[in-house]
Design brief:
This protein has 181 residues and is mostly helical. It has nine helices and no strands.
């Protein structure tokens, strides 16, 4: 009786399965439209701390020109060289991942930014949007409730986003008490 070596066949099966599975599955179109409405970050609001820096200028130029993959490639290796501007750089890197639909990587990058700065509130807002795009509605809801509680800047926007989600016919979660705007 001849023994069959299953290892090569198993590797081929695994690789072929991985190749046909999409890397990101977009949620229902209505959720995508709601998320687009709240994707409003303006890179012009970020200021560079310290002397002007060529790396920072190049990154902002790529971001403003919507060359998000270039931002990702540039900052994936250079983020630590930003010094005082690392927080702002992580925000731009996380938002660039968001723009190219790398939602899980966007969440990881934005969560690595733990300083209590205005960028943290912006990061939390985009973390909620990423969770919505990944069909993690209860996690998104939790992040939005934290914004309502702790962020004067995004409190009303978080309430409005929750209201938009709960009034959407395709949104299957039952609403929690979100308070009045």
């Amino acid at each position: 009786m001849k023994r069959i070596n299953w290892k090569p066949r198993l590797i081929i099966l695994i690789l072929s399965t991985c190749l046909i599975i999409p890397t990101c599955i977009l949620p229902p179109e209505s959720i995508v439209e709601i998320v687009k409405e709240y994707d409003t970050f303006d890179a012009e609001t970020l200021t560079f701390l310290g002397k002007d820096d060529d790396l920072w200028t190049e990154m902002l130029s790529y971001y403003k020109d919507e060359e998000y993959q270039a931002v990702i490639e540039l900052f994936s290796t250079e983020i630590d060289s930003l010094g005082l501007n690392r927080t702002r750089g992580l925000l731009i890197l996380g938002l660039s991942h968001f723009k190219v639909h790398n939602f899980q990587q966007s969440i990881s990058t934005l969560q690595s930014n733990q300083k209590n700065e205005p960028e943290l509130e912006e990061a939390q807002r985009y973390i909620a949007l990423c969770h919505l795009m990944l069909d993690r509605y209860s996690v998104a809801e939790s992040v939005l409730f934290k914004l309502i509680e702790f962020s004067p800047r995004f409190k009303n926007e978080a309430r409005k986003l929750l209201n938009d989600l709960y009034t959407n016919d395709e949104f299957l979660m039952s609403p929690s008490s979100i308070g009045s705007p």
